[in-house]
Design a protein that fits this description.
This protein has 137 residues and is mainly alpha-helical. Helix content is 85%, strand content 0%. It contains 4 helices and no strands. Helix 2 packs antiparallel against helix 3 and helix 3 packs antiparallel against helix 4. The N and C termini lie far apart (44 Å).
């Protein structure tokens, strides 16, 4: 617990000293919020077939995986710049992430999205079964 608190304080100091480091995470959360709000209030999911709904759900999980993965890769690039004694440059970090790192990380992000999707699907199926069992009593 003490080590985790030390890491948390170090991250806050870094974000306070270099505010550009928090920008990728904020942008990822903004994308997450926009998609979530669209799904909740803007999308009419009733007009899709079951297969289309599953494809849309996987696409959303893949988009979230991509958003958070890219944000973390950019943050890692910024931290690497700091470790090498350079002032963090958000543009250079974005360029390095998109040109050099994203190709290597893409398969991992795809697998992560598939696992996330399968776990969510399993959770939905099990909770649906539990609700039906409770209703039958």
């Amino acid at each position: 617990m003490k080590d985790a608190l030390m890491v948390f304080r170090g991250a806050l100091r870094c974000f306070r000293r270099f505010p550009c480091c928090i920008l990728p995470l904020l942008l990822a959360w903004c994308g997450y919020a926009a998609v979530t709000l669209w799904l909740r209030f803007g999308a009419d999911l009733s007009r899709y077939t079951a297969g289309q709904t599953l494809a849309l759900a996987f696409g959303v999980y893949f988009l979230f995986s991509l958003l958070f993965g890219i944000a973390c890769l950019i943050l890692l690039e910024l931290l690497q710049q700091l470790e090498h004694g350079r002032r963090p440059s958000l543009l250079r970090a974005v360029r390095d992430t998109l040109v050099r790192d994203l190709g290597k990380a893409f398969p991992i992000l795809l697998v992560w999205a598939a696992l996330w999707f399968l776990l969510a699907l399993l959770d939905a199926l099990l909770s649906s079964r539990d609700r039906k069992e409770k209703e039958s009593f």
